Amino acid sequence: MCTFALVMETFRTIIPIKKTWDLTHADRILTMGSCFADRMSDVLMQSGFRVEHNPFGVLYNPMSVVKALETLWYNIPFRDEDVFEYQGCYASFMHHTSFSGRDKDEVLKRIRMRTAQASQALHQADCLMITFGTSWVYALAETGKIVANCHKLPDYYFVRRRLDVAEIVEYYSEFLEVVFREKPDLKILMTVSPIRHFKDGAHENTLSKAVLHLAIEELCLRFPQVVYFPAYELLCDDLRDYRFYDEDMLHPNSQALRYIWEAFSQFAFDKNTKDLIHQLQQIHKAMQHKPLRPGDEAYVRFAQKNLAAIAMLQLAHPELDLTEEQDFFKRILE
């Protein structure tokens, strides 16, 4: 029994994770990149962190991410001509389809509002988290400009190619040198999305991810403020089983995301931050509680108890913004 148990303990590839980074609730965070960045942002926000996430929508390739960051850093205005129309829908080649719409003025309004908000967030940020999804890009055939999203335009509008390591490193180095002159203490976390881009092809996906890993490695060597978190390895090498994937067999499921989050907690949080996260998660769990009788005395006491807990947390941690949580339980008492 003991021998068998010992063998089973080594029946997987364990990725050692140690405390490498320092993230607290006092830090202001901006996340950019693939849909994996969106998922991690959701968990961070549920854990009480101040996060501005993907202000251009989901971005998959490194070049679109850095162009978006430049737009935010230099506060480059978004012009009317930066929106195009196709089959009655207005869209931006710098943005995800979530910004598209039938009303051009409304599309421009949403883009400009989010850009202004995110520009301020970047300049105030203590931490920038970037997730690369693919090094395959689509460039407009007419201009050579790399697009963040093709918006289902015909193939002949674009030329498809793969970025190389030197190209990514050059663009990011130039941008980061400017940023670090103004914000030398900015912490940057980079990850490679573990979500495979099988539409590119199996081998092409492998080559693509390899380019991203090599580019990030070079940036980590050049800039001590840049660190890498092995989300890709945790899913693809440690878990390495389709039971940890959604039905599409590409995206990690909730169990896998919890596992990666636990590893991230070891990587970035000290004991005090972990304790605070636990308290905040208990409050969010209480917010999901569905009472049998919403107006009864027990539910009122339940709301009062949570309001008191929120007040104590706010007093002990003034860096937290618990307005949404307070309003939720106050509405119960109205």
Protein architecture, described:
The protein is α/β, with parallel strands linked by helices and 334 residues long. It contains eleven helices and ten strands. It folds into two domains: 19-269, SGNH hydrolase (Rossmann fold, 3-Layer(aba) Sandwich); 270-334, no CATH class. 49% of the residues lie in helices and 13% in strands. β3 and β4 form a beta hairpin. The longest helix has 21 residues, at 104-124. It starts with a helix and ends with a helix.
Terminus-to-terminus distance: 60 Å
Shape: globular
> DSSP helix count?
11
The CATH topology name of the largest domain reads Rossmann fold
Low-confidence stretches: 1-8
Under CATH at level 1, the class of the largest domain stands as Alpha Beta
Structural class, please?
Answer: alpha/beta
- Roughly how much helix do the residues carry, as a percent range? 40-55%
Reading the helices and strands in chain order gives HEHEHEEHEEEEHEHEHHHHH
What's the β-strand tally?
10
Compute the gyration radius: what is it?
22 Å
The amount of beta strand, in percent, is 5-15%
CATH superfamily of the largest domain: SGNH hydrolase
**How many distinct folded domains?**
2
Largest sheet: 5 strands, parallel
CATH architecture of the largest domain: 3-Layer(aba) Sandwich
Strand order of the largest sheet: 2-1-5-9-10
Q: Quote the average pLDDT.
A: 92
